[in-house]
Predict the structure.
Amino acid sequence: MADMPAILVAEEDFNRLSTLIEKQGDSDVADGLENELSRATLVPLAEMPAHVVTMNSSVRFQNTDSGKEHELTLVYPHEVGTGDGKISILAPAGSALLGLSVGESIEWPIRGRANIHLKIINVTRQG
């Protein structure tokens, strides 16, 4: 896998996500999210640049393998509901998006499938 870009994560998100990982136990998705958090630089949410993906951000991104663009809101698992327009932080692409900035790309492994390649186009912070 390619080198992972540096990421910024809000301290508040880090704390909630760390608790979520503990509740998940040993799983590939939880391990992937834990690896993401271990390389994050923590910043108070109030100081987070607007172009960085945080929890509850609406993210427009491109799957550079297919060329398709998607816009989804990154949420906690219990907030997915019908899943319409939302992606769980525990989904592989959800974990991949956290902490990235507009213009950044990431290669993310998906168990049993080819890696996905995502590029951030726009971030809208929910207020």
